[in-house]
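Reviewers of the previous submission asked for a worked example of the structure-prediction workflow described in the proposal, so we include one complete record here. The input consisted solely of the amino acid sequence. No template or homolog information was supplied to the procedure at any stage.
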Amino acid sequence: MSGYRHPVNEKLGLEVVYAIVRAGGRQEKVEVGTVLVVDRQKAGDDGTLSFAPVLLVDGETVTHAAEDLAKVSVTAEFVQNERGPKIVIQKFKNKTGYKKRQGHRQELTRVRITAIG
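From that input alone, the workflow returned the following structure tokens.
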């Protein structure tokens, strides 16, 4: 399968390597060095995390078969835990005197992708 090659990358001789990973109910496009914010994850003892790839693009080779992707791992290093922006949930029912106010801040983890392969 011949894929699209960006003209600048072809001139410079750069090979594009990226992966689409499953992270907390979403899919994110990552390359080595990408900083990613995902739902709170527990890092291992060595401070690394692993993500399951859904798609891998290595130059002109596109891998999407499950048995081939089982051999591939995307590793990331833990950067910091943080909390998302505050959201306010308000409920109100007219003419009954019912009103409720509740807040929420999502717990997040910032990671940096270190290796694809």
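Helices lie at 7-12, 66-69. We consider this example representative of the routine output the project will generate in years two and three.
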